[in-house]
Design brief:
CATH class of the largest domain: Alpha Beta
Distance between the termini: 44 Å
CATH topology of the largest domain: Phosphatase 2c, domain 1
Largest sheet: 5 strands, parallel
Structural class: alpha/beta
Shape: globular
Number of strands: 18
Length: 449
């Protein structure tokens, strides 16, 4: 807890000093969620200027306690799905903050665990039933297990005495591996959980690095460090007068990862234009990202999706990892050139999605993972043809037919980009939004990305 508070203070401390320019009231429940409502009520009665809520249970209780006091949060959940904000770009109301989206890594944890223990056919999932994320965690992982032909059993633990009985049940089920779901209480008990998995000789995975640091077998997921620090930044900005409704919810570490990958790719633009080496360059950028994490522990788990295009006089090379997309607009038709790295059954992504689970991304883990970039080679663009590169903030919220119509009506790429962004925002834009529109003119193109 002290470490988390230090990171929070580091985020907003510029211009503030506890006890002099600002007074800080502390409340923490030590994983006992039933204590949270009275704590939130105390803060509301004290008429604090802003509430920093760390963890999904605390965010939910804080939101229920006040609709007027600003709340800066850090959560592993999807804030839109949980009802904390209207959208990520335009939160509305009195809440904003940072999300790690660790709830949705359950299927990926299962996939990794199966790769490490290929003989495992019976797997257990340990959840805290008092955590509001537990139902979604169980559902996502159960669906993934069914697709993989695995038998998954959900075990519950919400207090210390539950751990021993859960591991006893695990033996009775003859489970060969264990997934430990993300939970604030489980975070505090990382060392105990790691010791139990060792004592029972059960391979286990957890979505935060703290489990592996405490002696567990391995972890997969983002570090919370950047999330706490960014939440602190928002606390400082709110204290200086900014409104939560106008501060977009951000993904922890995402901006840092995007900048690092972009810098690597720009430096290797000549090799990107060669289909034989394009995938290799993207793989190198992924390895470089993990090296950066190793040098800066606070960035563990940062990740990003990627989509790019290189146009020469002879060919068009497009590449992507994740669910960012590349479209070609030609002769009034819109064609997707990229491939979506999403679970089976979620390729038609327009409209409300069950989750934002990806089957691969650059980074996104506390330990190195390989990727398989998608690379497509097409004929060079003809004069007047248009390329659209976008994040899922656009493709999730605007149907392909509407995208096509906006591009066809626009007189210039900038007008098209603004029209597309405006349409996504008006639809709610439930994710961060990036849009690039490029039109081939009559001149022969030079290599560019």
């Amino acid at each position: 807890m002290r470490g988390r508070l230090r990171l929070l203070f580091k985020g907003y401390q510029t211009g503030y000093e506890d006890g002099k320019t600002v007074k800080i009231e502390y409340r923490w429940a030590d994983g006992q969620y039933d204590r949270l409502p009275s704590m939130a009520a105390d803060l509301v009665r004290d008429q604090v200027a802003v509430i920093a809520a760390l963890g999904t249970p605390a965010v939910r209780v804080a939101k229920a306690a006040t609709a007027t006091i600003p709340i800066a949060f850090a959560t592993i959940a999807d804030p839109v799905q949980m009802g904390f904000v209207t959208s990520l770009n335009r939160p509305g109301g009195n809440l904003t903050g940072v999300t790690l989206l660790a709830v949705e890594v359950g299927p990926k944890l299962l996939e990794i665990l199966r790769g490490v223990v290929p003989s495992a056919t019976i797997i257990a999932l340990l959840v805290n039933p008092t955590n509001p994320n537990s139902e979604m965690q169980s559902k996502n992982t159960q669906e993934a297990a069914h697709k993989l032909g695995l038998e998954l059993h959900v075990l519950n633990a919400s207090v210390e005495n539950d751990f021993d009985s859960a591991f006893t049940k695990l033996r009775e089920l003859k489970a060969s591996a264990l997934i430990i779901a993300q939970d604030v209480y489980f975070n505090a008990e990382s060392a105990r959980l790691a010791a139990l998995t060792g004592r029972h000789a059960i391979p286990a995975i957890y979505p935060l690095p703290e489990f592996a640091v405490a002696g567990g077998l391995f972890s997969y997921g983002a570090s919370r460090s950047d999330a706490w620090r960014q939440a602190g930044v928002y606390v400082g900005r709110i204290l200086k007068g900014e409104k939560p409704a106008e501060l977009p919810v951000v993904h922890a570490n995402g901006a840092t990862a995007s900048r690092a990958v972009l810098a690597y790719l720009v430096a290797a633009i000549d090799r990107l234009s060669n289909p034989a080496s394009c995938a290799e360059v993207v793989e190198e950028a992924n390895r470089d990202l993990f090296e950066l994490m190793h040098e800066h522990e606070e960035s563990l788990g940062m990740g990003t999706t990627l989509v790019g295009a290189v146009l020469t006089a002879n060919q068009l090379v497009t590449f992507n990892v994740g669910d960012s997309r590349c479209y070609l607009f030609s002769a009034g038709q819109l064609v997707q050139l990229s491939d979506d790295d999403v679970p089976e059954g979620e390729t038609d992504r327009f409209g409300p999605r069950r989750s934002h689970v990806l089957t691969q991304a650059l980074g996104g883990s506390s330990f190195p993972l390989t990727i398989e970039p998608h690379v497509t080679v097409d004929a060079p663009l003809a004069p007047g043809e248009i390329l659209l590169l976008c994040s899922d903030g656009l493709s999730d919220m605007v149907a392909n037919q509407v995208i096509r119509d906006i591009i066809s009506r626009a007189k210039a790429p900038l007008q098209a980009a603004r029209g597309l962004a405006g349409k996504a925002f008006s639809a709610g834009a439930k994710d961060n939004l990036s849009v690039i529109v490029a039109r081939r003119t009559g001149a022969s193109p030079e290599p560019a990305a």
